[in-house]
Amino acid sequence: MTVERIDEESPLLTNETNNYTDHIQKRRRTTPTPLPKVQISILMLLQICEPITSQSIYPYINQLISELDITGGDERKVGYYAGLIESLFFVTEAMTVFQWSRASDHVGRKPILLIGLAGSMISMLLFGLSKTFWALVIRCHAGK
Q: Residue 102 — φ and ψ, nearest 5°?
C-alpha cells in the first residue's frame, strides 16, 4: 500500500479535470475581455457629485449661519451650528448606505444611481434657497 504525499505543491484536481481547466484557461488568455471604458467613465463622472455636494458648503457656511440669524446674534454659536449642519450629511450617509445597497441589489444599480443623483440635486437646490435652520438641515438628505 503506497501512501501519496500531499503537500502545497501537489495538484488538487485529477488529470482529466486539469486538461479541461487548462483548455479553458488557454481560451480565456487568447480572448481578453476589454475594459468597459465608457461605463467606467460615466460612473466616475457620477461619483464627482458626492464630494462636490459634501464639501461645497465649507467656504460659506459660517457666514450663511451668521446672516440667517440662527444663533440670535451670538457669534460663539456659529461654529456649533455650522458643524451640526456639516456633520448631518455624513451621519445620514452612514445611516442609509446599507439600505441603498440593499435596494440596489433588488432594483438595480442604474435606477438607484439616478435616484441618488436626483435627490442630491433637489436637496442642494433646497439648501441654497433655505432661510431657516431647519431648512438648512435639508442638506442632510443629500447624504442619503
A: -65, -40
